[in-house]
Each structure stands twice: as structure tokens, then as C-alpha cells.
Specification:
Length: 403
């Protein structure tokens, strides 16, 4: 499809199709439904977003998380949902229930308490640092999987860490001292003078603007300023809602890693065209422009992530090709490694206004297909959203680390 678009005469015939397709299915901000190409790399390890979280919908493929990313791998047991937690609390009731306890269980309780105290004593003090959680994770009263769970916290929850032992981090809060598996906490890096600046555009907005704007600087061809995007077939969530939710997580993740972040939009009720978004990203002083979208297709089986960048012959931003391509490839690799979703491809196309108007390296991230019921449901999940955000952030880290 993208090849045909470049041939003038076909453009108009195609435009009608794109309009319909885009309104019904596609990620319109991206200039149309980005269809997967048969035979393209689809290395995905399938739906690895699996059993650990206890969501029956995702239990078919209970494989471990990717080992490359520290996002859970073997010991996914700390990554739980409430139902599992409740079972756990039942399994380890607090003794103060007022019920009679027989001598044996009392003895067992005392023994376990002693073990827990020994484990706590074995924790080494470290210099206090701020850390944040990278998943929904249990916070326990002692550094052991057997220890009582104090609470369950969301990804991005900040704690002060002051101790470490055997895979556990000791954290202090106003409520006391607790323990979290170290693989689910990460040190928060304060933004430094001169740290990298990232512009994030949460794709679309609550109301489309059907006025037209040129597809690039000086272009005769025009496209709608901004469309409504696609919609989750199973969840009914709109693309503009999903993109902002993930963008907010991405902002938090990047800020926690020491980046400065500029958000093109922070609410749904805005009216900002794709060209304006590109200009805003540039004006913010950002070094790269990351546009967050979700995909749509007529084929409800289509699934997986892709990223989009210009071609080397783009009439407006050919000079941004190399960096945009590299950014797109790194983000796609990291996103698919983090989530375990299928890897489609980096789509090189000159049909996207928001790319053609960009003045800094740019990528569009099509995180998954909202027209695929299973992928739509996954993308509605808080923890999966965090995996998408941290995967995209990993790609950004790689981009800046690799220069
Ligand atoms: Zn979109």
C-alpha cells in the first residue's frame, strides 16, 4: 500500500479507501491502517504475557517473561493480581485473629517469626536511594516469599530503599519497614542539567478535526488534521484513551530514568493537528519525537507491534531518516522484548503528516491491534501498559546509549 501511495495517480483512488478504513479501523493519525505484510518478520515469541499475573484470559501460554529485560523472567510470582494475593493472605493469616490456636500452630508461628527476624537481620544497609516499582508487586513484611504481604502496589510507586539482601530490597515508608523483590524495583535517577529531552505525543484526541492540512511542508496533497483513531473491539476503549494512558506511564518511566519529558497533550479535549504536534515537539527543545498509537485492521487476527519512520527518499525529512530508522528499530525491539508480543516490522513510509512535519528524529509506535480482541484486552491491562511503557523507554535508552 505505501508503495502505491507514492504514485500520484493512485493516490486519490486509495485516499477514499484510506478514509473509510481509517475511520472504521485504522490508526488515522498514522495516515491509515498500517496493515501487516505477509512474510514480514514475525519473530514474536507469541503471547508471553502470560500465566504469572493470574489473569485467566492470558493463561494459555504460561511462558516466562523475556530474560533480556528483567521484567519478570523466571520468578514471576511476585507479579500478581489481587485474586492471587487474596489467596496468599488466606494462606498466611495474621495470628491476631482472636481465634484459638493450638500448641503446634503456635510453635510453627513462633518458628516462622524467628526465621523472618533472622532474614531481616541479614539485610545489609545501603545508602538510601529512591526506587520505583516496575510492575504490580507485593510489598512484604520480611524478605521472603513466605512473609506476610503488607500491600500490593502499582508500577511506578516510589519508595526509599535502604537495605539489600539475596534478591530483596528493604524499603522504608511512613508505615514502617518493608521488603520488595529487587528485580521489580529500579533506582530513580534525578533529572540532571543537560539530560536528554523526549517529546511524547499521545495519538489522536476525543474529537477528530476533519479540516485538511498539507501532508508535509509545501505539499499540495492534504490530509485530515487529526482523526479519532481506532477503538478496542473487546474493551470499547478508544485509541486516544489508550495512547494517553500509556504516554503518561512512559513519561513517568522516562522521568524516573533521568530524562526530561514534554507531553504534546495531557487531556483528551484538545484540538491539535498532526503538523502542529510535530511543531510543538520541536519547540519544546526535545531531541526525539515519540508518537504513541495503536493499530487497527480489517483482519481481527492481526496482532503485534510495529514502528513507523520515513523512507530515505522522503521529500521533507530525508535527513532524519537514519536516526528515525534507528530509533524505530530500537524501540520496536525493546517493546516486543518487554511485552512478548509479535514483532511486525519498522514500516518506512512518507504518508504520515506527523512524520513529514517533524524537525527531529521521529517514530510512530503502533503498540498493538485494538481490532484483535485478545490484544485489545491485554492493552487495557495496567501491568501490560507498564510493560509497553518500559519497553519503549528501553528503546530510547538504547538510542541515546548507542550514539
Ligand atoms: Zn493512531
Amino acid at each position: 500500500m505505501e508503495k502505491m501511495v507514492r504514485k500520484g495517480s493512485v493516490v486519490y483512488r486509495l485516499a477514499a479507501w484510506v478514509c473509510v478504513c481509517v475511520l472504521v479501523l485504522g490508526c488515522a493519525g498514522c495516515g491509515g491502517s498500517a496493515q501487516p505484510v505477509p512474510g514480514q518478520e514475525s519473530a514474536g515469541r507469541g503471547t508471553q504475557y502470560g500465566g504469572e499475573w493470574g489473569n485467566p484470559a492470558y493463561r494459555e501460554v504460561p511462558q516466562p517473561f523475556s530474560t533480556e529485560h528483567g521484567n519478570g523472567e523466571a520468578n514471576g510470582l511476585e507479579r500478581v493480581e489481587t485474586a492471587v494475593l487474596e489467596e496468599d493472605i488466606v494462606a498466611y493469616p495474621v495470628a491476631a485473629s482472636g481465634k484459638e490456636t493450638n500448641a503446634v500452630s503456635q510453635e510453627q508461628t513462633l518458628q516462622r517469626d524467628a526465621e523472618m527476624e533472622a532474614l531481616k537481620a541479614a539485610v545489609t544497609d545501603v545508602e538510601a536511594v529512591e526506587v520505583y516499582t516496575t510492575a504490580t508487586v507485593r510489598v512484604r513484611r520480611a524478605p521472603s516469599m513466605e512473609a506476610e504481604v503488607w500491600t500490593l502496589v502499582k508500577p511506578g510507586t516510589v519508595f526509599t530503599k535502604n537495605g539489600e539482601s539475596d534478591g530483596w530490597s528493604r524499603v522504608v515508608t511512613e508505615e514502617g519497614t518493608f521488603y520488595i523483590k529487587s528485580e521489580y524495583v529500579r533506582e530513580k535517577i534525578p533529572p540532571a542539567e543537560g539530560s536528554h529531552v523526549i517529546a511524547i505525543d499521545a495519538g489522536h484526541q476525543s474529537r477528530a478535526n476533519t479540516e485538511k492540512e498539507p501532508v508535509g511542508p509545501g505539499a499540495g496533497e492534504t490530509k485530515m488534521k487529526v482523526t479519532g483513531g481506532t477503538k478496542g473491539v473487546a474493551t470499547g476503549i478508544y485509541e486516544y484513551e489508550l495512547t494517553l494512558a500509556v504516554s503518561e506511564k512512559l513519561r513517568a518511566e522516562l522521568e524516573n530514568r533521568g530524562y526530561q519529558v514534554y507531553m504534546v497533550r495531557e487531556s483528551h479535549d484538545v484540538d491539535i493537528s498532526n503538523a502542529e504536534r510535530a511543531q510543538m515537539a520541536y519547540d519544546s527543545g526535545a531531541e526525539i519525537f515519540v508518537r504513541i498509537h495503536a493499530n487497527g485492521s480489517e483482519n481481527s487476527k492481526a496482532n503485534g507491534a510495529m514502528t513507523i519512520c520515513p523512507t530515505p527518499k522522503n521529500p521533507y525529512v530525508a535527513g532524519l531518516y537514519a536516526d528515525s530508522q534507528r530509533l524505530s528499530a530500537l524501540v520496536l525491539d525493546s517493546l516486543t522484548a518487554s511485552t512478548g508480543c509479535k514483532k511486525e516490522r519498522v514500516w518506512e513510509t512518507d504518508t504520515m503528516s506527523g512524520i513529514n512535519w517533524s524537525k527531529i528524529p521521529v517514530t510512530i509506535v503502533e503498540m498493538g491491534y485494538m481490532t484483535n480482541p485478545e490484544e485489545d484486552r491485554k492493552m487495557a491491562d495496567e501491568d501490560y501498559r507498564q510493560l509497553m511503557a518500559s519497553g519503549i523507554a528501553d528503546g530510547i535508552d538504547a538510542y541515546f546509549g548507542g550514539q
